[in-house]
Amino acid sequence: MKLPLPPPGCRRLSPLGVALGVFVTLGFTLGLLGGPFRRSPTSAPPCRPRSHVVFLKTHKTGGSSLVNLLSRYGESRRLRFALPHRYQFGYPAPFRAERVRGFGPGARFDILCHHMRFHLAEVQRVMPNDSFYFSIVRDPGTLGESAFSYFRAAAPAFRNSPSLDAFLASPSRFFRPGIRGNHYARNLQWFDFGLPEPTNPEEIPKILARLERVFPLVLLAESFDESLVLLRHRLCWPRDSVDLFPHNSRGSHQVSPAQIQRLRAWNSLDWALYSHFNRTFWRQAEEFGLERLSREVAEIRRRRRFLAGKCLRGGGPVPAQAIPDGNLRPFQPPGGGKILGFALKEGLGEEERELCGRLAMPELPYKDLLERRQFGAQNGTAG
Question: What integer pLDDT is reported at residue 337 of this predicted model?
């Protein structure tokens, strides 16, 4: 940029004055061009972390891992949890505000994340108006197999069937609607969302459109790490907030293509729910940027491998009987598949042991810990 000549008769500047003038002019020019002296007008303003969060924990979708994430974030920042008196909010009955321990005039809560059958009006009695709502869904073609194993004792339709194939060959032979526990056996996610039974298929898109307005982000179990990236950015939380170990897993179980198709057909409402939110998820992922998403997923996985190597005996999940610390042993459903958990390495320092222990802690003991911190009382037994 050519500097203007001084007007006639102007006193000649000293070398220091010339240098200062050039620096000021250069700075002004860089500012106009969007240089380091000025933030680009197109850059997004820094976001503010959200501390009011509602997570609808659906069954057999990876929700236990997300509850661990939310528990660690809230505990570290002294946020207040809306906790059930026991371990669920009266499930399978719809959620009611009175089910929250400490609910009453003037009560304030920041995070609601334990099992419930969703009921928006009642949740709004508990949580602030600016709360961020999110949930997670899973393809019923694989969720159905997991539910059959996990809820075998709880659902008469599953308990009375000799095998999954026998059930899928003739579901109506075993399933009776309205029988206690049979909600686990058909359209479980639709049930958890508290959605009404449509009288005809034309109602389904309208129901799901209304649901999307309540839940601006619904994660996918099959794209779990991609989900963590989108969730972190929507909540404006730091990178380490989405560090986690996968909780409540049974290891790998194969489902045949024929079983998948039959499970999707039997759980047709869940398939419609999943298909809808699969589309909304990937639309949001494209808006975020798929290359950027891929880079952040790789970083999440790198951090998880590092933490697993640092914290865990064997570097990953182990059977419950191999975990010496009772507080780290996951709940085992009666008659269901064996749930894996995490055993910590020996010789960890105090800070490392606390970090690793929180990452490895199952949902029920963590809920007890949060309750003691909020109310100073020991919780009862599971229910």
Answer: 64
CA dihedral sign, ordered 110, 114, 120, 123: negative
Indicate the residue type of 259. Answer: Q
> What's the CA gap between 213 and 215, in Å, rounded?
6
Q: Which residue has the higher pLDDT, 13 or 143?
A: 143
159 touches 152 (CB < 8 A): yes
Beta strands in 157-212 (DSSP E): none
Q: 150, 333 in Cβ contact below 8 A?
A: yes
Q: Which helix (H) or strand (E) holds 297?
A: helix 290-311
Length of the chain: 383
Q: Are strands 111-112 and 132-137 parallel, antiparallel or unpaired?
A: unpaired
Q: What is the 3-state secondary structure (H, E, C) of 248-274?
A: CCCCCCCCCHHHHHHHHHHCHHHHHHH
pLDDT digits (tens, 9 = 90+) for 264-316: 999 999 999 999 999 999 999 999 999 999 999 999 999 999 999 999 999 99
Q: For Cα atoms 265, 269, 273, give the angle at the middle one, nearest 5 degrees.
A: 115
- For 217-255, letters b (16+ CB in 10 Å) and e give bbbbbbbbbbbbbbbbbbbebeeebbbbbebbbeeeeeb
Q: In sequence order, which residues have a C-beta less than 8 Å from that of residue 175 and are 6 or more positions away? A: 157, 182, 185, 186
Distance CA 338, CA 329 (A): 11
Show the DSSP H helices in 3-55 as ranges: 15-32
Q: What is the mean pLDDT of residues 149-167?
A: 96
Burial group, residue 333, by CB count within 10 angstroms (0-12, 13-18, 19+): middle
Q: 32 CB contacts (<8 Å, ≥6 apart)?
A: 38
Which amino acid, one-letter code, is at 372?
R
